[in-house]
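Model it.
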Amino acid sequence: MEMWTNIRIGLGLLVLIIGILFFLLEIIGIIKYKFLLNRMHAAGMGDTMGICLSLFGLMIINGLDFTTAKLFMVILFLWFASPTASHLISRLEAATDEELGRHVRIDIEKEELEK
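Modeled.
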């Protein structure tokens, strides 16, 4: 029985470390990119994957109980909330940035702008 516990903890630590590596990649992306929309993309993708993998690793380490169910609910909430918030902040930046055309190509038809 102790062997399975060690395997579970080892697998959980591996998934937790992969989640932390996603956070490190997110930080590199935020530092590397120059424009806000590129930084938002790196932050949104890194947060979603990093948090979900980290919490999933904690779920594996913890085993099956009520705390695991709560962690799963947190993963579900963050899986929907983080990309939605990133999308809304990016749309706000795109709508209010007067110099957006200088660093991105805009392929919007005139009919779509008049709506």
